[in-house]
Q: What sequence folds into this?
Protein backbone atom coordinates (compact mmCIF):
# COMPACT_ATOMS: atom_id res chain seq x y z
CA UNK A 1 0.00 0.00 0.00
CA UNK A 2 1.34 3.45 -0.92
CA UNK A 3 0.27 6.27 1.33
CA UNK A 4 0.65 9.90 0.38
CA UNK A 5 0.01 13.14 2.18
CA UNK A 6 -1.41 15.46 -0.42
CA UNK A 7 0.16 18.67 0.72
CA UNK A 8 2.52 19.98 3.30
CA UNK A 9 -0.17 21.56 5.42
CA UNK A 10 -2.15 18.38 5.57
CA UNK A 11 -5.21 20.34 4.47
CA UNK A 12 -6.05 17.91 1.73
CA UNK A 13 -5.71 14.84 3.88
CA UNK A 14 -9.12 13.25 4.27
CA UNK A 15 -10.97 13.54 7.56
CA UNK A 16 -12.94 10.51 8.65
CA UNK A 17 -15.92 9.96 10.90
CA UNK A 18 -15.69 7.09 13.38
CA UNK A 19 -18.57 5.60 15.31
CA UNK A 20 -16.70 3.91 18.17
CA UNK A 21 -19.39 1.52 19.37
CA UNK A 22 -19.50 -0.78 22.38
CA UNK A 23 -19.88 -3.86 20.22
CA UNK A 24 -19.25 -2.64 16.65
CA UNK A 25 -17.45 0.34 15.14
CA UNK A 26 -17.95 1.95 11.76
CA UNK A 27 -15.88 4.41 9.71
CA UNK A 28 -17.02 6.71 6.91
CA UNK A 29 -15.61 9.43 4.69
CA UNK A 30 -16.86 12.11 2.32
CA UNK A 31 -15.67 11.21 -1.16
CA UNK A 32 -16.83 12.14 -4.65
CA UNK A 33 -19.67 14.25 -3.31
CA UNK A 34 -21.20 11.77 -0.94
CA UNK A 35 -20.55 9.77 2.21
CA UNK A 36 -19.02 6.35 1.83
CA UNK A 37 -19.09 3.75 4.56
CA UNK A 38 -15.70 2.08 4.39
CA UNK A 39 -15.62 -1.72 4.40
CA UNK A 40 -12.88 -3.41 6.42
CA UNK A 41 -10.38 -6.02 5.20
CA UNK A 42 -13.11 -8.67 5.51
CA UNK A 43 -15.48 -6.62 3.38
CA UNK A 44 -17.67 -5.84 6.40
CA UNK A 45 -19.09 -2.35 6.88
CA UNK A 46 -18.90 -2.57 10.66
CA UNK A 47 -16.01 -3.98 12.67
CA UNK A 48 -16.35 -5.70 16.06
CA UNK A 49 -14.92 -3.49 18.82
CA UNK A 50 -12.83 -6.37 19.98
CA UNK A 51 -9.09 -6.90 20.57
CA UNK A 52 -7.46 -10.27 21.20
CA UNK A 53 -4.00 -11.39 22.18
CA UNK A 54 -3.22 -14.86 20.96
CA UNK A 55 0.09 -16.74 20.61
CA UNK A 56 2.11 -13.57 20.34
CA UNK A 57 -0.27 -12.06 17.83
CA UNK A 58 -2.64 -9.17 18.33
CA UNK A 59 -5.95 -9.37 16.50
CA UNK A 60 -8.38 -6.49 16.14
CA UNK A 61 -11.95 -6.64 14.82
CA UNK A 62 -13.41 -9.68 13.07
CA UNK A 63 -10.31 -11.81 13.68
CA UNK A 64 -10.53 -11.13 17.40
CA UNK A 65 -14.27 -11.79 17.62
CA UNK A 66 -14.03 -15.03 15.65
CA UNK A 67 -11.69 -16.64 18.14
CA UNK A 68 -13.35 -15.40 21.35
CA UNK A 69 -14.71 -18.81 22.34
CA UNK A 70 -11.22 -20.35 22.13
CA UNK A 71 -9.42 -17.58 23.95
CA UNK A 72 -11.91 -15.85 26.26
CA UNK A 73 -9.47 -14.56 28.88
CA UNK A 74 -7.39 -12.67 26.31
CA UNK A 75 -10.18 -11.32 24.12
CA UNK A 76 -11.23 -7.84 25.19
CA UNK A 77 -14.59 -6.30 24.33
CA UNK A 78 -16.77 -3.70 26.05
CA UNK A 79 -13.85 -1.25 26.53
CA UNK A 80 -16.45 1.49 26.05
CA UNK A 81 -18.18 0.31 29.20
CA UNK A 82 -14.96 0.90 31.12
CA UNK A 83 -13.66 4.08 29.55
CA UNK A 84 -13.65 7.09 31.86
CA UNK A 85 -15.01 5.06 34.77
CA UNK A 86 -13.47 4.12 38.08
CA UNK A 87 -12.75 0.54 39.09
CA UNK A 88 -15.00 0.87 42.15
CA UNK A 89 -17.94 2.09 40.02
CA UNK A 90 -20.79 -0.33 40.77
CA UNK A 91 -21.45 -0.73 37.02
CA UNK A 92 -17.84 -1.82 36.45
CA UNK A 93 -18.10 -4.24 39.36
CA UNK A 94 -21.31 -5.72 37.90
CA UNK A 95 -19.83 -6.05 34.41
CA UNK A 96 -16.70 -7.70 35.72
CA UNK A 97 -18.76 -10.63 36.94
CA UNK A 98 -19.72 -11.36 33.33
CA UNK A 99 -16.44 -10.61 31.57
CA UNK A 100 -14.20 -13.57 30.87
CA UNK A 101 -11.13 -11.27 30.92
CA UNK A 102 -9.54 -9.92 34.08
CA UNK A 103 -9.86 -6.33 35.25
CA UNK A 104 -7.85 -5.08 38.23
CA UNK A 105 -7.74 -1.88 40.24
CA UNK A 106 -4.89 0.32 39.00
CA UNK A 107 -3.49 3.43 40.67
CA UNK A 108 -6.11 6.02 41.64
CA UNK A 109 -8.92 3.52 41.21
CA UNK A 110 -8.37 3.24 37.43
CA UNK A 111 -9.52 -0.07 35.96
CA UNK A 112 -6.81 -2.01 34.14
CA UNK A 113 -7.39 -4.94 31.82
CA UNK A 114 -4.95 -7.80 32.27
CA UNK A 115 -4.03 -10.11 29.39
CA UNK A 116 -1.34 -12.59 28.70
CA UNK A 117 0.69 -11.54 25.67
CA UNK A 118 3.91 -13.16 24.50
CA UNK A 119 4.26 -15.10 27.71
CA UNK A 120 3.96 -12.03 29.90
CA UNK A 121 1.13 -10.40 31.82
CA UNK A 122 0.28 -7.04 30.27
CA UNK A 123 -2.00 -4.38 31.67
CA UNK A 124 -3.99 -2.03 29.48
CA UNK A 125 -6.21 0.95 30.18
CA UNK A 126 -9.58 1.07 28.43
CA UNK A 127 -8.21 4.04 26.46
CA UNK A 128 -5.46 1.84 25.04
CA UNK A 129 -7.87 -0.88 23.95
CA UNK A 130 -10.14 1.74 22.38
CA UNK A 131 -7.12 3.29 20.67
CA UNK A 132 -6.36 -0.10 19.09
CA UNK A 133 -9.89 -0.22 17.66
CA UNK A 134 -9.61 3.38 16.48
CA UNK A 135 -6.23 2.51 14.94
CA UNK A 136 -7.88 -0.35 13.06
CA UNK A 137 -10.59 2.00 11.75
CA UNK A 138 -7.89 4.48 10.73
CA UNK A 139 -5.96 1.74 8.90
CA UNK A 140 -9.18 0.59 7.20
CA UNK A 141 -9.70 4.14 5.92
CA UNK A 142 -6.07 4.53 4.87
CA UNK A 143 -6.14 1.31 2.86
CA UNK A 144 -9.38 2.31 1.20
CA UNK A 145 -8.31 5.84 0.40
CA UNK A 146 -4.63 5.09 -0.26
CA UNK A 147 -3.78 8.15 1.78
CA UNK A 148 -2.55 8.93 5.24
CA UNK A 149 -5.49 9.76 7.50
CA UNK A 150 -4.85 11.93 10.52
CA UNK A 151 -8.04 13.83 11.20
CA UNK A 152 -11.19 12.37 12.63
CA UNK A 153 -14.48 13.15 14.27
CA UNK A 154 -15.34 10.51 16.85
CA UNK A 155 -18.78 9.98 18.28
CA UNK A 156 -19.75 9.26 21.88
CA UNK A 157 -23.10 8.59 23.54
CA UNK A 158 -24.88 11.88 24.23
CA UNK A 159 -25.05 10.90 27.87
CA UNK A 160 -21.29 10.38 28.30
CA UNK A 161 -19.88 12.55 31.07
CA UNK A 162 -16.76 14.69 30.82
CA UNK A 163 -14.37 11.93 31.95
CA UNK A 164 -15.72 9.52 29.38
CA UNK A 165 -15.42 12.14 26.61
CA UNK A 166 -11.90 13.11 27.64
CA UNK A 167 -10.85 9.47 27.77
CA UNK A 168 -12.30 8.86 24.27
CA UNK A 169 -10.38 11.86 22.97
CA UNK A 170 -7.23 10.49 24.58
CA UNK A 171 -7.84 7.12 22.90
CA UNK A 172 -7.94 8.96 19.57
CA UNK A 173 -4.66 10.71 20.35
CA UNK A 174 -3.02 7.39 21.27
CA UNK A 175 -4.16 6.03 17.89
CA UNK A 176 -2.34 8.95 16.25
CA UNK A 177 -5.50 10.80 15.31
CA UNK A 178 -6.12 14.49 15.51
CA UNK A 179 -9.61 14.40 17.01
CA UNK A 180 -11.19 17.49 15.49
CA UNK A 181 -14.41 17.07 17.38
CA UNK A 182 -16.23 14.68 19.65
CA UNK A 183 -19.91 14.67 18.70
CA UNK A 184 -22.89 12.91 20.19
CA UNK A 185 -24.05 9.73 18.49
CA UNK A 186 -27.73 10.70 18.14
CA UNK A 187 -26.75 14.13 16.84
CA UNK A 188 -24.58 12.47 14.20
CA UNK A 189 -27.51 10.26 13.21
CA UNK A 190 -29.71 13.36 12.94
CA UNK A 191 -27.12 14.98 10.64
CA UNK A 192 -27.32 11.88 8.43
CA UNK A 193 -31.10 12.06 8.40
CA UNK A 194 -31.03 15.81 7.62
CA UNK A 195 -28.66 15.34 4.69
CA UNK A 196 -30.58 12.41 3.27
CA UNK A 197 -33.96 14.12 3.54
CA UNK A 198 -32.91 17.68 2.69
CA UNK A 199 -35.56 18.30 0.11
CA UNK A 200 -38.37 16.77 2.17
CA UNK A 201 -37.75 19.01 5.17
CA UNK A 202 -39.74 22.00 4.03
CA UNK A 203 -40.31 23.56 7.44
CA UNK A 204 -38.89 23.40 10.95
CA UNK A 205 -39.47 19.95 12.44
CA UNK A 206 -38.95 18.25 15.80
CA UNK A 207 -36.96 15.07 15.55
CA UNK A 208 -36.46 12.46 18.22
CA UNK A 209 -33.47 10.16 17.85
CA UNK A 210 -33.86 6.89 19.74
CA UNK A 211 -30.44 5.27 19.82
CA UNK A 212 -30.21 1.83 21.43
CA UNK A 213 -26.91 0.14 20.63
CA UNK A 214 -24.78 -2.60 22.10
CA UNK A 215 -23.90 -0.95 25.39
CA UNK A 216 -25.51 2.47 25.58
CA UNK A 217 -28.88 4.09 25.20
CA UNK A 218 -29.47 7.71 24.19
CA UNK A 219 -32.44 9.82 23.31
CA UNK A 220 -32.04 13.23 21.76
CA UNK A 221 -34.70 15.70 20.88
CA UNK A 222 -33.69 18.14 18.15
CA UNK A 223 -35.25 20.75 15.99
CA UNK A 224 -34.23 20.77 12.38
CA UNK A 225 -34.60 23.86 10.27
CA UNK A 226 -35.95 23.77 6.73
CA UNK A 227 -33.49 21.87 4.52
CA UNK A 228 -32.12 19.90 7.50
CA UNK A 229 -28.99 22.06 7.78
CA UNK A 230 -29.37 23.64 11.20
CA UNK A 231 -29.75 21.19 14.03
CA UNK A 232 -30.51 22.44 17.47
CA UNK A 233 -30.46 19.89 20.25
CA UNK A 234 -33.19 20.65 22.77
CA UNK A 235 -32.59 17.89 25.30
CA UNK A 236 -30.76 14.62 25.74
CA UNK A 237 -31.25 11.77 28.14
CA UNK A 238 -29.97 8.27 28.36
CA UNK A 239 -28.14 5.55 30.12
CA UNK A 240 -24.49 4.88 29.36
CA UNK A 241 -24.98 1.35 30.54
CA UNK A 242 -28.00 -0.08 28.79
CA UNK A 243 -27.98 -1.94 25.50
CA UNK A 244 -27.85 -5.18 23.58
CA UNK A 245 -25.09 -6.58 25.80
CA UNK A 246 -27.46 -6.45 28.76
CA UNK A 247 -30.12 -8.33 26.82
CA UNK A 248 -27.52 -10.95 25.89
CA UNK A 249 -26.50 -11.29 29.54
CA UNK A 250 -30.06 -11.97 30.62
CA UNK A 251 -30.23 -14.74 28.01
CA UNK A 252 -26.89 -16.16 29.16
CA UNK A 253 -28.15 -16.20 32.78
CA UNK A 254 -31.30 -17.98 31.67
CA UNK A 255 -29.31 -20.64 29.79
CA UNK A 256 -26.93 -21.13 32.74
CA UNK A 257 -29.91 -21.62 35.06
CA UNK A 258 -31.44 -24.11 32.66
CA UNK A 259 -28.15 -25.99 32.46
CA UNK A 260 -28.00 -26.10 36.27
CA UNK A 261 -31.59 -27.30 36.46
CA UNK A 262 -31.01 -30.10 33.98
CA UNK A 263 -27.55 -31.30 34.98
CA UNK A 264 -27.08 -29.84 38.45
CA UNK A 265 -23.83 -28.30 37.30
CA UNK A 266 -22.82 -24.66 37.57
CA UNK A 267 -21.09 -23.42 34.43
CA UNK A 268 -20.75 -19.79 35.52
CA UNK A 269 -17.12 -20.31 36.52
CA UNK A 270 -16.24 -21.73 33.09
CA UNK A 271 -15.08 -18.74 31.05
CA UNK A 272 -14.94 -20.62 27.78
CA UNK A 273 -18.48 -21.91 28.24
CA UNK A 274 -19.71 -18.40 29.10
CA UNK A 275 -17.98 -16.97 26.01
CA UNK A 276 -19.58 -19.58 23.77
CA UNK A 277 -22.98 -19.05 25.36
CA UNK A 278 -22.70 -15.29 24.91
CA UNK A 279 -22.01 -15.68 21.17
CA UNK A 280 -24.85 -18.15 20.76
CA UNK A 281 -27.28 -15.94 22.70
CA UNK A 282 -26.41 -12.88 20.64
CA UNK A 283 -27.10 -14.82 17.45
CA UNK A 284 -30.35 -16.17 18.87
CA UNK A 285 -31.40 -12.65 19.90
CA UNK A 286 -30.94 -11.41 16.34
CA UNK A 287 -33.00 -14.31 15.01
CA UNK A 288 -35.75 -13.50 17.51
CA UNK A 289 -36.10 -10.10 15.87
CA UNK A 290 -37.51 -11.92 12.82
CA UNK A 291 -38.75 -15.27 14.14
CA UNK A 292 -40.75 -16.00 17.25
CA UNK A 293 -38.84 -19.12 18.20
CA UNK A 294 -35.24 -20.25 17.91
CA UNK A 295 -32.94 -22.70 19.62
CA UNK A 296 -29.54 -22.43 21.21
CA UNK A 297 -27.37 -25.48 20.61
CA UNK A 298 -23.80 -25.90 21.80
CA UNK A 299 -21.84 -29.13 21.72
CA UNK A 300 -19.75 -29.96 24.79
CA UNK A 301 -20.63 -26.72 26.54
CA UNK A 302 -19.46 -27.68 30.02
CA UNK A 303 -17.75 -30.83 31.24
CA UNK A 304 -18.44 -32.39 27.85
CA UNK A 305 -22.22 -31.96 28.12
CA UNK A 306 -24.07 -30.81 25.01
CA UNK A 307 -26.58 -28.03 25.52
CA UNK A 308 -29.76 -27.41 23.59
CA UNK A 309 -32.58 -25.10 24.54
CA UNK A 310 -35.55 -23.52 22.79
CA UNK A 311 -35.80 -19.75 23.22
CA UNK A 312 -39.00 -17.91 22.35
CA UNK A 313 -39.41 -14.23 21.56
CA UNK A 314 -41.91 -14.06 24.43
CA UNK A 315 -39.26 -15.36 26.86
CA UNK A 316 -36.72 -12.86 25.53
CA UNK A 317 -39.20 -10.03 26.02
CA UNK A 318 -40.15 -11.20 29.50
CA UNK A 319 -36.48 -11.28 30.54
CA UNK A 320 -35.78 -7.80 29.24
CA UNK A 321 -39.04 -5.94 29.73
CA UNK A 322 -37.52 -3.99 32.64
CA UNK A 323 -34.86 -2.57 30.32
CA UNK A 324 -37.42 -1.70 27.64
CA UNK A 325 -39.63 0.11 30.15
CA UNK A 326 -36.57 2.04 31.32
CA UNK A 327 -36.00 3.17 27.74
CA UNK A 328 -39.53 4.57 27.49
CA UNK A 329 -39.21 6.29 30.89
CA UNK A 330 -35.97 7.92 29.74
CA UNK A 331 -37.69 9.07 26.58
CA UNK A 332 -40.44 10.68 28.66
CA UNK A 333 -37.84 12.42 30.82
CA UNK A 334 -36.21 13.84 27.69
CA UNK A 335 -39.51 15.25 26.42
CA UNK A 336 -40.22 16.70 29.88
CA UNK A 337 -36.81 18.38 29.94
CA UNK A 338 -37.49 19.94 26.56
CA UNK A 339 -41.03 20.86 27.72
CA UNK A 340 -42.38 19.28 24.58
CA UNK A 341 -45.48 17.18 24.23
CA UNK A 342 -45.02 13.91 22.37
CA UNK A 343 -47.62 14.99 19.81
CA UNK A 344 -45.20 17.71 18.67
CA UNK A 345 -42.56 15.19 17.60
CA UNK A 346 -42.63 15.02 13.80
CA UNK A 347 -40.12 12.27 13.23
CA UNK A 348 -38.80 9.37 15.34
CA UNK A 349 -35.48 8.08 14.03
CA UNK A 350 -34.24 4.65 15.05
CA UNK A 351 -30.50 4.21 15.47
CA UNK A 352 -28.41 1.35 16.90
CA UNK A 353 -28.70 -2.37 16.23
CA UNK A 354 -30.97 -3.01 19.22
CA UNK A 355 -33.76 -0.87 17.74
CA UNK A 356 -34.44 -3.86 15.48
CA UNK A 357 -36.03 -5.64 18.45
CA UNK A 358 -39.77 -5.79 17.64
CA UNK A 359 -40.86 -5.18 21.25
CA UNK A 360 -38.80 -1.99 21.40
CA UNK A 361 -40.37 -0.75 18.16
CA UNK A 362 -43.82 -1.74 19.35
CA UNK A 363 -43.49 0.09 22.69
CA UNK A 364 -42.15 3.17 20.94
CA UNK A 365 -44.98 3.18 18.46
CA UNK A 366 -47.50 2.78 21.25
CA UNK A 367 -45.91 5.65 23.14
CA UNK A 368 -46.20 7.89 20.09
CA UNK A 369 -49.79 6.82 19.51
CA UNK A 370 -49.12 4.61 16.51
CA UNK A 371 -46.89 7.09 14.72
CA UNK A 372 -44.77 5.58 11.95
CA UNK A 373 -41.13 5.24 12.99
CA UNK A 374 -38.45 6.35 10.57
CA UNK A 375 -36.33 3.43 9.50
CA UNK A 376 -34.85 5.06 6.42
CA UNK A 377 -31.47 5.66 8.07
CA UNK A 378 -29.33 2.57 8.46
CA UNK A 379 -29.24 1.98 12.22
CA UNK A 380 -25.70 0.56 12.07
CA UNK A 381 -24.19 3.22 9.85
CA UNK A 382 -26.04 6.48 10.45
CA UNK A 383 -23.75 7.58 13.28
CA UNK A 384 -20.53 7.14 11.30
CA UNK A 385 -22.25 8.79 8.32
CA UNK A 386 -23.08 11.91 10.35
CA UNK A 387 -19.61 11.96 11.91
CA UNK A 388 -18.05 11.90 8.43
CA UNK A 389 -20.24 14.82 7.35
CA UNK A 390 -19.04 16.78 10.38
CA UNK A 391 -15.44 15.76 9.69
CA UNK A 392 -15.68 17.01 6.11
CA UNK A 393 -17.17 20.30 7.26
CA UNK A 394 -14.59 20.86 9.98
CA UNK A 395 -11.73 20.11 7.62
CA UNK A 396 -12.84 22.99 5.44
CA UNK A 397 -14.73 21.15 2.72
CA UNK A 398 -16.60 23.80 0.75
CA UNK A 399 -19.21 21.56 -0.82
CA UNK A 400 -22.53 23.42 -0.75
CA UNK A 401 -24.26 20.86 1.43
CA UNK A 402 -21.92 21.75 4.31
CA UNK A 403 -22.41 25.50 4.03
CA UNK A 404 -25.62 25.63 5.99
CA UNK A 405 -24.74 22.79 8.37
CA UNK A 406 -24.87 24.21 11.84
CA UNK A 407 -24.87 22.10 14.92
CA UNK A 408 -26.03 23.38 18.27
CA UNK A 409 -25.60 20.68 20.88
CA UNK A 410 -26.26 20.67 24.61
CA UNK A 411 -24.51 19.47 27.74
CA UNK A 412 -26.09 16.21 28.91
CA UNK A 413 -25.49 16.62 32.65
CA UNK A 414 -25.34 19.57 35.02
CA UNK A 415 -21.93 20.90 36.01
CA UNK A 416 -21.03 22.72 39.18
CA UNK A 417 -18.94 22.85 42.32
CA UNK A 418 -19.31 21.75 45.89
CA UNK A 419 -20.17 24.51 48.32
CA UNK A 420 -20.53 24.46 52.11
CA UNK A 421 -22.45 21.47 53.48
CA UNK A 422 -21.69 19.23 50.50
CA UNK A 423 -24.23 21.15 48.45
CA UNK A 424 -23.91 20.84 44.65
CA UNK A 425 -23.98 24.38 43.24
CA UNK A 426 -24.81 24.14 39.52
CA UNK A 427 -23.11 26.57 37.13
CA UNK A 428 -24.12 24.95 33.84
CA UNK A 429 -27.50 23.19 34.03
CA UNK A 430 -28.05 20.11 31.91
CA UNK A 431 -29.28 20.66 28.37
CA UNK A 432 -27.56 24.05 28.11
CA UNK A 433 -26.50 24.72 24.49
CA UNK A 434 -22.75 24.39 23.97
CA UNK A 435 -20.21 25.89 23.63
CA UNK A 436 -21.00 27.85 26.74
CA UNK A 437 -19.30 29.88 29.44
CA UNK A 438 -20.84 30.57 32.84
CA UNK A 439 -19.38 32.32 35.90
CA UNK A 440 -20.44 32.59 39.49
CA UNK A 441 -18.98 34.30 42.55
CA UNK A 442 -18.21 32.26 45.65
CA UNK A 443 -16.50 33.19 48.90
CA UNK A 444 -14.71 31.82 51.97
CA UNK A 445 -16.36 29.87 54.81
CA UNK A 446 -14.30 31.05 57.76
CA UNK A 447 -12.18 34.02 58.90
CA UNK A 448 -8.66 34.32 57.46
CA UNK A 449 -9.15 31.43 55.09
CA UNK A 450 -6.17 31.59 52.71
CA UNK A 451 -7.15 28.80 50.34
CA UNK A 452 -10.18 26.99 49.01
CA UNK A 453 -10.54 23.58 47.48
CA UNK A 454 -12.64 23.70 44.33
CA UNK A 455 -14.32 20.36 43.70
CA UNK A 456 -15.97 20.05 40.29
CA UNK A 457 -18.87 17.63 39.92
CA UNK A 458 -21.17 16.51 37.13
CA UNK A 459 -24.61 15.06 37.72
CA UNK A 460 -28.16 15.76 38.81
CA UNK A 461 -28.11 15.06 42.55
CA UNK A 462 -28.45 17.78 45.18
CA UNK A 463 -25.64 16.44 47.35
CA UNK A 464 -22.29 16.95 45.67
CA UNK A 465 -20.86 13.57 46.67
CA UNK A 466 -23.73 11.75 44.97
CA UNK A 467 -22.53 13.11 41.63
CA UNK A 468 -19.50 12.27 39.52
CA UNK A 469 -16.35 14.02 40.75
CA UNK A 470 -14.56 15.36 37.69
CA UNK A 471 -11.62 16.90 39.45
CA UNK A 472 -10.47 19.27 42.12
CA UNK A 473 -7.83 21.88 42.68
CA UNK A 474 -6.71 24.29 45.36
CA UNK A 475 -6.85 28.02 44.93
CA UNK A 476 -4.39 29.55 47.38
CA UNK A 477 -3.09 33.02 48.19
CA UNK A 478 -6.44 34.47 49.22
CA UNK A 479 -5.67 37.70 51.17
CA UNK A 480 -6.63 37.22 54.82
CA UNK A 481 -10.03 38.68 55.61
CA UNK A 482 -13.23 37.97 57.46
CA UNK A 483 -15.32 35.10 56.12
CA UNK A 484 -17.57 35.88 53.18
CA UNK A 485 -15.50 38.96 52.25
CA UNK A 486 -13.06 37.61 49.60
CA UNK A 487 -14.63 37.12 46.19
CA UNK A 488 -13.75 34.16 44.04
CA UNK A 489 -14.95 34.09 40.47
CA UNK A 490 -15.48 30.51 39.25
CA UNK A 491 -15.77 30.24 35.49
CA UNK A 492 -16.93 27.09 33.67
CA UNK A 493 -16.27 26.91 29.97
CA UNK A 494 -17.52 24.01 27.89
CA UNK A 495 -16.25 23.65 24.33
CA UNK A 496 -18.07 22.21 21.34
CA UNK A 497 -16.75 18.72 22.21
CA UNK A 498 -18.58 18.94 25.51
CA UNK A 499 -15.26 19.13 27.35
CA UNK A 500 -14.92 21.40 30.33
CA UNK A 501 -12.32 23.85 31.61
CA UNK A 502 -12.73 25.46 35.01
CA UNK A 503 -10.90 28.61 36.02
CA UNK A 504 -11.09 30.22 39.45
CA UNK A 505 -9.90 33.74 40.11
CA UNK A 506 -9.31 35.63 43.36
CA UNK A 507 -10.95 38.87 42.34
CA UNK A 508 -8.83 41.19 44.54
CA UNK A 509 -5.45 39.86 43.35
CA UNK A 510 -6.31 38.52 39.90
CA UNK A 511 -4.57 35.22 40.75
CA UNK A 512 -6.09 32.31 38.89
CA UNK A 513 -6.03 28.54 39.00
CA UNK A 514 -7.23 26.24 36.22
CA UNK A 515 -8.58 22.75 36.44
CA UNK A 516 -6.46 20.26 34.65
CA UNK A 517 -8.16 16.95 35.16
CA UNK A 518 -5.34 14.85 36.52
CA UNK A 519 -4.77 11.15 36.46
CA UNK A 520 -6.15 11.06 39.96
CA UNK A 521 -9.48 11.78 38.36
CA UNK A 522 -9.09 9.28 35.61
CA UNK A 523 -7.64 11.63 32.97
CA UNK A 524 -4.35 10.81 31.32
CA UNK A 525 -1.52 13.32 31.46
CA UNK A 526 0.22 14.45 28.26
CA UNK A 527 3.25 12.39 29.24
CA UNK A 528 1.13 9.31 29.72
CA UNK A 529 -0.54 9.80 26.35
CA UNK A 530 2.88 10.21 24.74
CA UNK A 531 4.05 7.01 26.38
CA UNK A 532 0.97 5.19 25.17
CA UNK A 533 1.46 6.51 21.64
CA UNK A 534 4.95 4.99 21.77
CA UNK A 535 3.54 1.74 23.20
CA UNK A 536 0.89 1.69 20.47
CA UNK A 537 3.64 2.05 17.86
CA UNK A 538 5.50 -0.76 19.55
CA UNK A 539 2.45 -3.03 19.39
CA UNK A 540 2.04 -2.11 15.75
CA UNK A 541 5.69 -2.98 15.12
CA UNK A 542 5.16 -6.22 17.04
CA UNK A 543 2.20 -6.98 14.77
CA UNK A 544 4.29 -6.27 11.70
CA UNK A 545 7.16 -8.35 13.06
CA UNK A 546 4.72 -11.15 13.77
CA UNK A 547 3.37 -11.00 10.22
CA UNK A 548 6.91 -10.93 8.82
CA UNK A 549 7.74 -13.97 10.91
CA UNK A 550 4.59 -15.78 9.86
CA UNK A 551 5.45 -15.13 6.19
CA UNK A 552 9.03 -16.36 6.71
CA UNK A 553 7.75 -19.42 8.59
CA UNK A 554 5.33 -20.27 5.80
CA UNK A 555 7.99 -19.69 3.17
CA UNK A 556 10.34 -22.13 4.92
CA UNK A 557 7.59 -24.73 5.28
CA UNK A 558 6.69 -24.27 1.61
CA UNK A 559 10.31 -24.64 0.68
CA UNK A 560 10.60 -27.90 2.65
CA UNK A 561 7.44 -29.18 1.04
CA UNK A 562 8.75 -28.36 -2.44
CA UNK A 563 12.09 -30.02 -1.65
CA UNK A 564 10.37 -33.20 -0.54
CA UNK A 565 8.37 -33.19 -3.76
CA UNK A 566 11.48 -32.58 -5.83
CA UNK A 567 13.36 -35.44 -4.12
CA UNK A 568 10.90 -37.92 -5.59
CA UNK A 569 12.27 -37.17 -9.07
CA UNK A 570 15.98 -37.29 -8.18
CA UNK A 571 17.93 -40.37 -9.02
CA UNK A 572 21.44 -39.20 -8.10
CA UNK A 573 22.12 -41.05 -4.85
CA UNK A 574 24.62 -38.59 -3.33
CA UNK A 575 22.56 -35.49 -4.06
CA UNK A 576 19.43 -37.18 -2.84
CA UNK A 577 21.13 -38.20 0.40
CA UNK A 578 22.35 -34.66 0.98
CA UNK A 579 18.90 -33.24 0.36
CA UNK A 580 17.25 -35.80 2.65
CA UNK A 581 19.67 -34.80 5.40
CA UNK A 582 19.10 -31.10 4.99
CA UNK A 583 15.31 -31.46 4.82
CA UNK A 584 15.22 -33.73 7.89
CA UNK A 585 17.55 -31.45 9.87
CA UNK A 586 15.58 -28.33 8.93
CA UNK A 587 12.24 -29.95 9.76
CA UNK A 588 13.60 -30.85 13.19
CA UNK A 589 15.10 -27.39 13.61
CA UNK A 590 11.74 -25.83 12.76
CA UNK A 591 9.95 -27.97 15.34
CA UNK A 592 12.46 -27.02 18.01
CA UNK A 593 12.72 -23.33 17.10
CA UNK A 594 9.15 -22.12 16.88
CA UNK A 595 10.27 -18.80 18.32
CA UNK A 596 12.93 -18.20 15.66
CA UNK A 597 13.01 -14.69 14.22
CA UNK A 598 11.98 -13.82 10.66
CA UNK A 599 15.65 -13.27 9.74
CA UNK A 600 16.68 -16.67 11.10
CA UNK A 601 13.86 -18.35 9.22
CA UNK A 602 14.81 -16.56 6.04
CA UNK A 603 18.49 -17.48 6.43
CA UNK A 604 17.52 -21.08 6.97
CA UNK A 605 15.44 -21.07 3.82
CA UNK A 606 18.25 -19.50 1.81
CA UNK A 607 20.64 -22.12 3.19
CA UNK A 608 18.53 -25.14 2.19
CA UNK A 609 17.78 -23.60 -1.17
CA UNK A 610 21.51 -23.14 -1.82
CA UNK A 611 22.15 -26.78 -0.99
CA UNK A 612 19.20 -28.32 -2.72
CA UNK A 613 18.82 -26.23 -5.84
P1 LIG B 1 -24.60 -0.93 17.62
O1 LIG B 1 -23.90 -0.53 18.89
O2 LIG B 1 -25.52 0.07 17.10
O3 LIG B 1 -23.67 -1.48 16.60
O4 LIG B 1 -25.57 -2.14 18.03
C1 LIG B 1 -25.07 -3.39 18.30
C2 LIG B 1 -26.09 -4.14 19.11
O5 LIG B 1 -27.25 -4.35 18.34
C3 LIG B 1 -25.57 -5.50 19.53
O6 LIG B 1 -25.91 -5.74 20.88
C4 LIG B 1 -26.32 -6.42 18.62
O7 LIG B 1 -26.51 -7.69 19.21
C5 LIG B 1 -27.63 -5.69 18.45
N1 LIG B 1 -28.36 -6.10 17.24
C6 LIG B 1 -27.93 -6.04 15.97
N2 LIG B 1 -28.85 -6.54 15.13
C7 LIG B 1 -29.90 -6.94 15.90
C8 LIG B 1 -31.17 -7.55 15.65
N3 LIG B 1 -31.54 -7.88 14.41
N4 LIG B 1 -31.98 -7.80 16.70
C9 LIG B 1 -31.61 -7.50 17.95
N5 LIG B 1 -30.43 -6.92 18.27
C10 LIG B 1 -29.58 -6.64 17.26
A:
Amino acid sequence: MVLTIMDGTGNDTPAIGIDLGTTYSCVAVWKHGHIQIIPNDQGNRTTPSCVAFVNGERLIGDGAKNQVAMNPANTIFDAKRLIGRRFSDSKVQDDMKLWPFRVIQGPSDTPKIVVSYRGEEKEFLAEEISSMILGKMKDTAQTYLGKIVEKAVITVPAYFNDSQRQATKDAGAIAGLNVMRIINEPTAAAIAYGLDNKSDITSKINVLVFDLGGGTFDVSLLTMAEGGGTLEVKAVAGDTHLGGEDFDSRMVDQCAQEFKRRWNKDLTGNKRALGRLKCACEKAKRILSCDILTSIEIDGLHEGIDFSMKFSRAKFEELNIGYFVKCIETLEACLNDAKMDKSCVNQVILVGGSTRIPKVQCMLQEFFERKELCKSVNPDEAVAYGAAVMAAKLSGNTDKCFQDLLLLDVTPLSLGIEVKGEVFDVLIPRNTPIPTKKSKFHTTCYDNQSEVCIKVYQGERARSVDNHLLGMFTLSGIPLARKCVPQINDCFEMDANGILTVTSEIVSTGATEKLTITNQNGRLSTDEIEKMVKDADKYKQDDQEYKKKAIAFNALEDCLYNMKHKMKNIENGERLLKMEHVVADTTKWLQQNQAASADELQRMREYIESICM
Residues 21-24, 213-214, 243-245, 282, 285-286, 289, 352-354, 356-357, 380 surround adenosine monophosphate (CB under 6 Å). The CA atoms of residues 450 and 479 lie 6 Å apart. Residues 1-11 have pLDDT under 50 and may be disordered.
